[in-house]
């Protein structure tokens, strides 16, 4: 079995970063990171890990998406009073969009959600995602296309409106 402390030290920032960008809260990201390393430790004990970065990235992405799915506290914005906090409108809109996007990603099937999160939250390339998710670059492209279409429907965006994602 590899030196576990060295693996944790080398990848802790990556795992926390993946989790934080998906869940959006520090304590939730810490919980996801802990669960990720626990699960990876079990995989390592079974001798099934060949690429630590990809394995940890994949587990963290799936666990973070699972956490957001369990949260499900987001609902329609109709009837919700505006925040009493005195912040610039742009910052509030960006936060609202971020919250809606996180909730919408949690409604996607597992693979498209992971591909979308790794593409737009982690800025990984198609090949890096394929390696992390143990699939082909073509399958990553298809999953990303499906994720975008499904998010467009979930968020009820008009294709002519400004999109919530950008090309990497």
Protein described:
By secondary structure, the protein is mainly alpha-helical. It has a single domain, classed as Up-down Bundle (Butyryl-CoA Dehydrogenase, subunit A, domain 3). The protein contains seven helices and no strands. Helix 1 packs across helix 2, helix 3 crosses helix 6 and helix 6 crosses helix 7. The termini are far apart.
Distance between the termini: 37 Å
At CATH level 2, the architecture is Up-down Bundle
Secondary structure tally: strands: 0
Q: Percentage of helical residues?
A: 55-70%
Largest sheet: none
What ranges have pLDDT less than 50 throughout 5 or more consecutive residues?
Answer: 162-168
CATH class: Mainly Alpha
C-alpha-based Rg, rounded: 17 Å
Order of helices and strands: HHHHHHH
Annotation field: number of helices = 7
CATH topology-level fold name: Butyryl-CoA Dehydrogenase, subunit A, domain 3
CATH superfamily: PhyR, sigma-like (SL) domain
- Structural class by helix and strand composition: mainly alpha
Beta-strand residue percentage? under 5%
Whole-number mean pLDDT: 81
Overall tally of domains: 1
Overall morphology: globular
Give a brief outline of the structure.
By secondary structure, the chain is mainly alpha-helical.
Write the layout of secondary structure elements.
Blueprint: H1 4-23, H2 26-45, H3 52-71, H4 89-106, H5 110-120, H6 126-133, H7 137-154
Keywords:
disordered C terminus, mainly alpha, Butyryl-CoA Dehydrogenase, subunit A, domain 3, 168 residues
